Amino acid sequence: MTDRAFEDISENRALYNSLIKKRISLISILFAGLVVLFLFNISIGSSSISIVQILRALFLNQGEGNNVMIVKDVRLPMALMAIAIGAALGIGGCEIQTILRNPIASPYTLGISSAASFGAAVGLILNNSILNLPEALAITGNAFFFTLVVSTAIYIFSLQRQIGKTAIILFGIALNFLFSSLTMILQYIADENQLQSLMFWNFGSLLKTTWTKFFIVFAVLFICMIILFKNAWKLTAMTLDDTKARSIGVDVSKVRRLVILITSLISAVAVSFVGTIGFVGLVAPHIARLTVGEDQRFFMPLSALLGGFILSLAFLLSKLIIPGVILPIGLVTSVIGIPFFMAIIFSKMRCM
Amino acid sequence: MLKVNNLKFSYGKDRACVFDNISIEFNKGFNVILGPNGAGKSTLVKAIFGLLNYRGTIYYNCKNVSEMKTCEKVELMSYLPQMDLDISSLTVLEMVLLGRLPELSRRVSDKDLNIVMDTLKDLNIHELSMKKFNELSGGQKKLVFIAQTLVRNPEIILLDEPTNSLDLQKQLELCQLLGKIIKVRNVDIIVVLHDINLAARHADHIVVITSQGDYYNSGAAKDVITEKMLRDVYGVIGSVNLDDENKPVISAKKSARDSCDT
User: Fold this and answer.
1) Backbone torsions φ then ψ of A79, nearest 5 degrees
2) Nearest to A239 among B90, B113, B145 (CB)
3) Which of the residues A232, A321, A325, B238 has the least number of beta carbons within 10 Å of its own beta carbon?
């Protein structure tokens, strides 16, 4: 009898482990890929630096000419920033899709990006720093301020009793239009130079990355990831119908509010530092869901990893497509992202 | 056992009351709620689980359920809502694991795994455990949700139309399993059913609600399921006979509305 019970137990465990192992190995492979991309991103630029030299510069502080400085102060923070921003956008998308139970939602659906653009426009066109920051951070500060305005608005809206997910999406879309229109008003009074700089800001770019900026993004990302990971099972339960989730003891409205707060913050930071980089927040969680499913213990980390992977790849391509020219990364993500995304959707439709 | 006192509820201030001072007493064991469409069977179960803001009180063995916190209610009761649409791409194993949410840690314990797999075996769907939920048929999804409701160890299990979209064999097996669970785990079960014959065969106690949301009658199957009840509550003319096990079996002949017209 006990033998039989013991056999059953190990059988169940083995079954479960087979499920988990597949996912962990997938995550490991992707992580390895990310490391490779990361090294390439440091290596490739206006001058190529070999991987050996990079490692020497990083760990031994040795190198020819300015290589140590280029590697440590220019390319390393940029390559890290690509990963951090990608991860932030991936997580933002993953969690917004989860709590709104809508696979086409992303933080941008809630108006985060258009609010950031508006903030940038206020800085670039009206030369106004709302938070009274020094010039180097004025644009970022403005963008962040307005993304916080939008996040707060959505948060307060979601505080109402029993507010549903459709209402939140509609509210976000309304905010999106509002801030786009406000930006257009500013564009109407702007001169050519201002319009051009706003356009470039909207393209998104990693080139202005500094260590300070990276550490701010990283700190926010890290804290948010820990909070989300602690709530992993509750978030997994959010994939169910509201009543169903409540029936297993999840306070749906509370989880939804927490996630809105976290994703807004995480995307606000990402967007204000590098501009609006589209599609990562939509594509990364989508691929993650197709490969590991919706168990948040894997879904969230994989969305982050994939986000970092996609953005690193886009960054690399932005330096390679036209030799000697670095294209805005936001353009590259959309241009390579869209066909790729369509391919996934079509192959999925065939399966269905 | 569970007692509902003077329950009053409506889905909005300007809308008609679903219940106006209804009082119901359930028994130990297998309880079934019967009533026509729109009588408020689902609403009653929702109210018991505490998903609605109602007036009145609900007691369970002298404990005031109405004043319990959500976490206490979740510990006391397990509830299967009536709904079929769900597109989650979780695997069946994970889906059922979620039923143990209050106790789940990040590393899934052997205990949790075993309870889940045993329940899946009880429902004869353990072979689906690695399948994605959104690839299952309607009846299989229903069974997965039932499993999710059963993996906890509550004192009361509330099931809202669990036999919907199940085939005849599964319906019977489910009712037998519920009977077994009542005995083994000493829980009380309240089930909303539409199939009067299924209710008559398995229920220990039947509660009938009318289409106006009023209490009609309650008791053992053969006392409650009568030709008069069919006519009063369902508006159906039919006969009720006792089978060889002394359980009532109905055979509905025609709608009472037809006979009025002719």
Assistant:
1) -65, -40
2) B90
3) A325
Chain A closest-CA separation from residue B114 CA (Å): 6
CATH number at residue A340: 1.10.3470.10
Q: Is the pLDDT of residue A198 over 60?
A: yes
**A70-87 confidence digits (pLDDT tens):** 888 889 999 999 999 999
Give the C-alpha separation, A218 to A81, whole Å. 8
In terms of domains, do B208 and B88 share one? Answer: yes
pLDDT tens, residue by residue, A178-195: 999 999 999 999 999 989
Could you say which of B79, B104, B129 has the minimum Cβ distance to residue A233?
Answer: B104
Helices (H), chain B: 41-49, 70-76, 92-98, 110-122, 138-150, 168-185, 196-202, 221-224, 227-229, 256-261
Are B130 and A232 in contact (CB < 8 Å)?
Answer: no
Domain residues for the domain of A306 are 2-109+205-351
What pLDDT score does A2 carry? 47
Instruction: Check residues A60 and A313 and name the one with the higher pLDDT.
Output: A313
Together in a domain, B210 and B247: no
Q: What is the mean pLDDT of residues A207-231?
A: 93
Q: Are residues B210 and B142 in the same domain?
A: yes
Task: Give the Cα separation of A293 and A290 in Å (integer).
Answer: 6
Query: What is the predicted ipTM?
Result: 0.82
How many of the other CB atoms lie within 10 Å of CB of B119? Answer: 22
Instruction: Kindly state whether residue A169 falls inside one of the protein's structural domains.
Output: no
